[in-house]
Amino acid sequence: MPDLFQVVTVAEANARLCAHIAPIPRRESLPLHEALDRVLAEELRSPVDLPAFPRSTVDGFAVRAADTYGASESLPAYLTLCGEVPMGRASELTVGPGQAALIHTGGMLPSGSDSVVMVENTQHLDPTTIEVVRPVAVGENVIPVGEDVSRGDLLFPRGHRLRPQDLGGLAGVGIVRVPVVARPRVAILASGDEVVPADADVAPGQVRDINSYTIAALVRRAGGEPVLCGIAPDDPAILDRMARSALEDADLLVLSAGSSVSARDHTVSVIEALGAPGVLVHGVAIHPGKPTIIAVAGERPVFGLPGNPVSAIIAFGLFVAPALRWLQGAREADPPTVQAVLTLNIASKPGREDFVPVRLERRDGALRAEPVFGKSNLIYTLAHADGLVRVPLDLSGLYAGSPVEVTLF
């Protein structure tokens, strides 16, 4: 077991953890409308061409491009109307030399035509004849067969998290059920004699359980299935029993509180006893969140998060959220960020990464990041913030007026 507070960097902590995590094998097949934000368990390839037929991208006239060459306002091309292309089915029309067929956006090009003249570039000379005042090239204003995707093309790789536009794309090729990785089951266990349920009346010295609810919400956002396992007292035997019970049917366990240095701290010993390889990290070079515990019991990650809500939320984003992505085999980009200008100085200490909540607002045409200073046990420090600014390890702070990158909540 690592020595207490032999702190490591965020990157080193995650590297140690990642080496022990494998994607969970469970999978399920979901109807498309239920698959938003789920991670694909296998790659998907297109069973068809999309579009399956050449389609017009504009309202206009289907023509043979050669019949429009040289057309202009002063010397238009004259074409004879041969009919109108119906919507929703193939046309029986054939466009011959010197002919045009009225077509609407999305309509299937009739036989013989190879392009579409926009209606704005035509005039009716009489009920059966149009003037074309601008030439078109072959394929102009037309989506050819398979331009969006061709049969057999890779649509999405294994590990892709499905977005709204992805569901639309799958519907477009007729895929209405998708194989996805099962949601990792995340057991959440609060601890501390002073912690009481959120719906309880609090006596002097007691606090309501904030972390179980915030962690559960973060788990859902990261694609997991939270399981609230109650509140354990500061009794090592009871904490051990509740932790083992919580982990029994879970893919990941989060214990909140009890990871600070105190005479009554049993969390690290309980976590170490859950199974090999045990505690990988106890102490990370961050503020807030330094006393975070990272462990693996068997193949299941276990985290001891600080009891202070701000510390717990920041540590979750740095360590638990990546672990949930790895358990799902998710191929994901970093969290969204924006560039802003810092409004106040931020002090820090070299050798640790500071994460400071900021509130964003646009002033004088620029996005401003105003630090929300507060102790790590004050949940509204984060509730009033829009994101976090990271102060790198090697800096003693950031100055007002500096450009900063804000990681959005």
Description:
This protein has 409 residues and is an alpha/beta fold. The chain folds into 4 domains: 10-26 and 182-328, MoaB/Mog-like domain (Molybdenum Cofactor Biosythetic Enzyme, Chain A); 27-47 and 160-181, Alpha-Beta Complex (Molybdopterin biosynthesis moea protein, domain 2), CATH 3.90.105.10; 55-143, Beta Complex (Molybdopterin biosynthesis moeA protein, domain 3), CATH 2.170.190; 337-408, Beta-clip. It is 18% helix and 32% strand. It contains 7 helices and 28 strands. The strands form 8 sheets. The chain has a 6-stranded mixed sheet, with no helix packed on it. Helix 1 packs parallel to helix 6 (309-328) and helix 3 (211-221) packs parallel to helix 6. The radius of gyration is 31 Å and the shape is elongated. It starts with 9 loop residues before the first helix and ends with a strand. The model has no long low-confidence stretch (mean pLDDT 93).
What structural class do you assign from the helix and strand content?
Answer: alpha/beta
Mean pLDDT over all positions: 93
What separation lies between the terminal Cα atoms? 33 Å
Number of domains: 4
Write down how many β-strands occur, each being a DSSP E stretch of 2 or more residues: 28
Query: Residue share in helices?
Result: 10-25%
> What spatial order of strands do you see in the largest sheet?
7-4-6-5-9-8
Query: Rough shape?
Result: elongated
Q: Which CATH architecture of the largest domain would you pick?
A: 3-Layer(aba) Sandwich
Uncertain stretches of 5 or more adjacent residues: none
User: The CATH topology of the largest domain, please?
Assistant: Molybdenum Cofactor Biosythetic Enzyme, Chain A
The count of helical stretches stands at: 7
Our estimate of the beta-strand percent is 25-35%
CATH class of the largest domain: Alpha Beta
Biggest sheet layout: 6 strands, mixed
